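Appendix C. Worked example: DUF577 domain-containing protein
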Amino acid sequence: MANRRIEKGSTSYPPPRLTASRNYVGAKAKEILATHDITGIKKLVTILCHAKETEQETEHLYKTFAHHFPNILAVKLLKLYMSTNDATTNPKIRSFSLSLLASLLNDLDYSGAGLKTESLKSIKTHLNTCLYELESSDEDFGIISRIVSHVAVDVFIENHPWDELCSYIFSLDGNKRALLMFSELPTLLDEEFLMPLLDNGLSSKIFKALDCVDEEEWLVGLVAGFSLMLQLVTLKKESLVKDLFYAILNSVWEMVNVKKREIVVRKGLLKIARKVGREALRFREPEYEAVADWVKMIQKISGVSKITKKVVKMVQELLDNLSNCVFVSVSERQVLVLWKQCTYRFCFFCGLFMLVWMHSLILVLPFHYNEVGVEYIIMDKF
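Step 2, the predicted output written as structure tokens:
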């Protein structure tokens, strides 16, 4: 019996992670997140950027923050990117903070949680500053565009205006960045947001890009043209939809048969497949029918190889998976979001009441408080 006790206490049973301690996580959250200073988050991100196997505790701490405090963490990561006046902040660390933020927002979208109203306002304000006041590399701009896309979903679902974003897009010089930013936006834009873009030459930039020799600009023009086509379908702009529809088809035909750049076409179709994959659940019948018709016409283009047709088929398969789904409008989606939020709060308070009734409040409440309550308190400081 004595020997068995010794074996149980041996090193074959590793000690629990330090980050598994609620007190440790709470202390670190207060040190890193509940402060205006970015020193703590910069140290955390720096260690993650230079990831080593020996830094598993840091990685686990970050994942814990991302799980329990995603809204505050999102604000802190964006503030770290904005710290251009801090000479001690390496540009590589700033760029890495953007990548972490994009990944965090993607996980929130995937989980259906979305951003809370308090952090949404803060992130939107900081993003406006990033767009208008900070210079960014092409790589960073691509990540910022994806971040804007994630934030825009919550902004437009809640019917908040984003005039600054609209003004920024048509103020950009050249086609590439303006079209890239637009192509990343969700298919939730209303006429009030979209019409100023059209009045300031968005469609002309797309037509010009589709006729461009530069491959990267052509790719951006292809996805932007496809995105605008989807946006215009619901606004019943049939004439411009047809113009875009045939401009894309003619451009694809020319790239395949005249310029012999079918590989570039394939890249563009893969980007469109990813776009449809992100947006498909938001499609209503008009968008679904427009994409289905577009797929059929692409498949009929002469000279397109079997490999390219397989890429097009990916888009069709995404649509087929939706064939039995119910298409909901934006207003109906808002009801679903509100219902989900109310259900979550109701379940939380019911669960809290049951915990009190079961006399386990002392053990469990501190952790629940960290999960839910602390975020609202900390957000008041930003």
